Each structure stands twice: as structure tokens, then as C-alpha cells.
Amino acid sequence: MSEAQRSNNRLPSKHAQRGAKLAVMLLCGLIAAALLGGCPRNRITDLNFEPASGSIEGGTVVTITGSNFGAATTATFGGVAATGVELLSDTQIRVTTPPNPAGRVTVVVDRGDGTAITEQNAFEYVDPGAPPELAFTRVEPDTGSAAGGETIELIGANFEVAMTVIIGGQRATGVTFVNPSKLRVVTPAHDAGLVSITIVSPDNVRAVSLSNSFEYVEP
Predict the structure, then answer these.
(1) Is residue 41 part of a domain?
(2) Residue 185 domain boundaries
(3) How many domains does the chain fold into?
(4) What is the dihedral of CA 97, 100, 106, 110, to 10 degrees?
(5) Is the residue at 31 inside a domain?
(6) Which of 87, 129, 123 lies closest to 103, judged by CA?
(7) Are residues 101 and 140 both part of a single domain?
(8) What does pTM read for this prediction?
(9) Rounded distance between C-alpha atoms, residue 86 and residue 63, angstroms
(10) What is the pLDDT, as a whole number, of residue 17?
(11) Is residue 174 part of a domain?
């Protein structure tokens, strides 16, 4: 056998060379994945909360719908851990809310393997003992004489007896409580033009306004 033939026999075959390259590429991929935090995981996405509000005292049972949940999934509301976390499926968990102050809070759902999702202002805590917010939607009729003395009705929600009504910066007279959604008032005199109307609760704590809701016209 010639020296050239012996040299060729010592060289790896093309198949062996290709296999070595694949092994090196695989090894490099494993190293890169380790450096980047391991293999990619399925993300938790598209959270939905039912109900989306509950008492400041906690204890509201909430069903969270999403995707890719696991047995170790947890949830926090406003930074406080929920209790009674129950995995219903890989798309739903059921939790019990912890106590929190009134207002909207951020909810974090964590699968327990480093995969989590944060939903800003996702859940609203309400004070069951607080009076309902006032609502004011329209005025009937919405025009009247600049001389005042006309009866109009204010339409809204959660009205009470003994409310104060301010029309164009002046206190209205003859405020009559008709029902929780209607007040009847007598307009004060005012220059012609559009004015705002403000309704104030009897304790002067709550108020609601409707800008440019009534127009005074020259008689």
C-alpha cells in the first residue's frame, strides 16, 4: 500500500465529518440555551377575570382564564398572595382574593417555573360599606330663561334627599328629590350661555358635574 493510500485511510469519511459537525452544533445550541436561561417555555397569555371586582375584605372567589397554567401556578393581587389556588385546567385556575385597599390592583400569575404574566389594574377592590357613586347623565329640558325661575329635572343615579345643586356657580332653589334617578330643581337667574351643573351629596363628600349641560337664553 502506498503512502497516499495509507494517508487517505487515516482521514475520517464524509459521513463521519458531517456527524461531528452536527454534534458540535448541538453542543453549541445546548450551551447557548443554558446561557439564555434554558429552553423556551410556553408563555401564560390572555388573562380574563370573573368577577373582575370584589370586596376590600378579600374572600372573593375569582376564576382566571388564560393559557398554559400548571399545577404549581400561583397568583398575587396587589402584591398579596391569593389563597385556595385550584387548577381547573391548563386554561383556568380558581383563587380566593386577599384583602386590599379600595381601588384597582395589579395581578401577577406565576406558573412556578419562572414563567409569569403581569396584568396592570386587572382587579378592582370596592368598599361594600361605602355609599354608591353619584351619576348625572342629562338635564330635561336643557335650555331655559336667563331670568331663572324655571323647573328642570336632573337625570342620573344614586340621588338622595337633601342634595345641593349648583347651576352656573349659583345654588339652585326648590331642590326636590323625586326618586334615586331624578331631582327636580328651580333655576337661578344667570347670564345667557352654556353653564355646568353640579350635584353635591348631603354630606358634602360626593359630587358629580355635567359640563355645559344647560343653556340660558334671553327671555
Answers:
(1) no
(2) 135-217
(3) 3
(4) -40
(5) yes
(6) 123
(7) no
(8) 0.52
(9) 9
(10) 53
(11) yes
30 SS3 class: helix
In the prediction, which pLDDT does 129 show?
85
Nearest alpha carbon to residue 197 among 178, 172, 162, 160: 172
pLDDT tens profile 23-37: 544 554 444 444 444
Give 125-193 as a DSSP string.
Answer: EE-TTSPPPPEEEEEES-EEETT---EEEEEEES--TT-EEEETTEE-EEEEEEETTEEEEEPPP--SE
- With CA atoms as reference, report the closest residue to 149 among 176, 174, 169, 182: 174
Who contacts 134 (Cβ-Cβ below 8 Å, separation ≥6)?
156, 157, 158, 159, 199, 201, 206, 207, 208
Would 196 be classed as within a structural domain? Answer: yes
The torsion angles phi and psi of 124, rounded to 5 degrees, stand at -110, 125
Residue whose C-alpha cell reads 391548563 in the numeric block: 90
94 with 113, same domain: the answer is: yes
Bridge partners, residue 183, by sequence: 154, 177
